[in-house]
Amino acid sequence: MNWLKRIPLAHRGLYDNVNVPENSISAFKNAVEKGYGIELDVRLTKDKQVVVFHDSNLLRLSKSDKNIKDILYKDLNDFKLFNTSKKIPLLKDVLKIINGKVPLLIEIKNYEDSGYFEEKVYELIKDYKGVFGICSFNPNVILYFRKNYPEIKRGLIYGNFNKSEKKYINFIFLYRYIKIKPNFISVDFYLLNTFISKMCNFLNLP
Asked: Is the pLDDT confidence value at 166 over 60?
């Protein structure tokens, strides 16, 4: 995963959320044109299609308080991203556009039982030609890939704690690291000069 240190990653693509929405085909094309790596988010629709979308529902981007998991993919086409004509893309279509031209980081937005969602993603990425990795806040997602598809680079996103967890973040980190053995860590900015970042440096963990 040395590419993580060499080039910037365009988070949700290269967008302005005016003419070019986040996690849209246009945002990914912009990033490819600039030579930036791409980070994107994936969720499952009601009919188990893997779509590229960050939020759990459509309220912020499409002014509808409906959850992605409760909508059929064909019905998602009725919703536009912000005030544009852009639609929510399928991961398989995004992969065709990126096509190995730049590094890719796929964040799996799964906060339920691991297994089905991860298999759906794996089926889409197993033959992808290009540098890529998967990541998640959910350690069970990373553990699933470690056990079943260890050849895929995987990273733990660490941050976003509630009040009760904040007192134990070092212990939680150690437990998760030992359990899931991620290939890289993505930490919240306020953890950059803490025990956690020092441990990552000691372990030579990107």
From this structure: yes
Per DSSP, the three-state class of 54 is: coil
94 is catalytic: no
CA pair distance 3, 197, nearest whole angstrom? 19
Between these two residues, 161 and 37, which has the higher pLDDT value? 37
Q: Find tokens 């912020």 and name the residue.
A: 60
Query: CA 183 to CA 175: how far, in whole Å?
Result: 15
pLDDT per residue over 104-131, tens digit each? 999 999 998 899 999 999 999 999 999 9
Angstrom CA distances, 73 to 3, 13, 21, 43, stand at 33, 21, 19, 11
Calculate the alpha carbon distances from 200 to 86, 104, 107, 136, 156 in Å: 39, 22, 20, 17, 12
- Beta-carbon contacts of 182 under 8 Å, excluding residues fewer than 6 positions away, are 142, 146, 154, 155, 156, 205
Question: Is the separation of the CB atoms in 180 and 146 below 8 Å?
Answer: yes
Place 9 in a pLDDT band, splitting at 50, 70 and 90: very high
Which of the following is catalytic: 11, 86, 109, 154? 11
162-181 mean pLDDT: 90
Residue 148 structure tokens: 């079943």
Whether the Cβ atoms of residue 135 and residue 108 lie closer than 8 Å to each other: yes
d(CA 153, CA 44): 21
Q: Please pick, among 29, 54, 69, 80, the residue that the annotation labels catalytic.
A: 54
- Check if 68 is active-site: no
